[in-house]
Amino acid sequence: MSSKPGPEKLFALDLMLGKLAKWLRLLGFDARMKDLSNPGEVPLLLSRGFIPVTRREKLKETVGVVFIESDRAFDQLKEVISRLSIDRSGLKMFSRCMVCSAPLSHISKEDAFGGVPDFVFETATDFRKCPECSRIYWAGTHRKRMLERLESITEWKQDAGGQDGGE
Ligand SMILES: [Zn+2]
Question: What single string gives the DSSP state of each residue in 58-82?
Fold first, then answer.
């Protein structure tokens, strides 16, 4: 299994929370989409160690379920972070595919050739690839903007509480 203590939380997001799922993956969490309208689904997920996240009123009182009040993805992320007391340390940000939730593999600059825009190939470092969908990710301005947004809702600082990226 994993060699370092990373975020062990495993999220099961209700179907309407796709954008929130992407943000959680960005933080390094495994976030799967599930249909929580099925009555048997939540107990099953809980027994498998998932944290179900939903906006369904019916599930509001269910122990172990994170009920989301907001309808905006970024505010939803804020809710999850504060509800579960997630802090920056130990997070493996940018380690998962935003689409598949699969852990990304580091690839060399050479291997990124042709898979990224030319200007990215020229300037970027730290290329990572999704084994499921073959998307390539890199450190760049987009990542920096997302970190700045995260800082705006948390006490997190870019240069505190561990390194960004790395192994
Ligand atoms: Zn992918």
Answer: GGTT-TT-EE---SSHHHHHHHHHH
